Amino acid sequence: MLSPLRNRRFFRRLGTGASALFCLWAEWVHLPGLSLAGVGVDWPVIWVVCWSLERTMLQGAAAGLVLGLLLDGLTAPIPTHGPGLILVGVLTARLREYRFLQSETLAVALLTFGLTVVQETTLALQFMALGEIDPALLWAHHQKISLASGLVTCLWAPLVWWLLQRFWAWGEALED
To answer: What are the residues whose beta carbons fall under 8 Å from the beta carbon of 1, sequence distance 6 or more?
Structure first.
């Protein structure tokens, strides 16, 4: 039988994993108000930013890799979402490490906007490397996608961040 402390850790880890899977599932849910110009919220980017804010660069990269692999398992593996999400995790943890960012709502929204653009640019570079799309057409489309995705994503990021922070703080309080 597990001790109460191990049960609490297990519950916290289960909740963290469930929130990551929920963000992957939400990628396919298109509700009114969750899109702009036909582009929806990039939930995995929000989750990786929220996770990486309180963790090391290696943990941020690992979260980006795992979510990238899971997302690729649900979609086409080429181009892969992994490099962009790894970059998001590393940059978030790095900015936090240098104290450029405090865990405040506006900072989370701005960071999520910028990192959504970085993730979309990484995908566009992979499409360009494949050579199947005209680069001029690709970059024109990329501008629309990255700005719309960045705007919609940064609006929802503070809510997700707040919920996850409360859950993680609650889980830590249980362990004390």
So the answer is: none
CA separation for the pair 119, 41 (Å, rounded): 13
Pick from 59, 41, 11, 16: nearest CA to 165: 16
Count other Cβ atoms within 10 Å, centred on residue 105.
12
Question: Rg for the chain (alpha carbons), in Å?
Answer: 17
Short-list 19, 23, 83, 93, CA closest to 54: 93
Query: What single-letter amino acid sits at 50?
Result: C
CA separation for the pair 113, 116 (Å, rounded): 5
Q: Give which of 144, 129, 152 is closest to 78, Cα–Cα.
A: 129
Rounded Cα distance between 60 and 45, Å, is 11
Do 150 and 113 form a contact (C-beta atoms < 8 A)?
yes
Q: What is the pTM of this model?
A: 0.86
H or E element in which residue 38 lies: none
Q: What value does the mean pLDDT take over residues 35-47?
A: 82
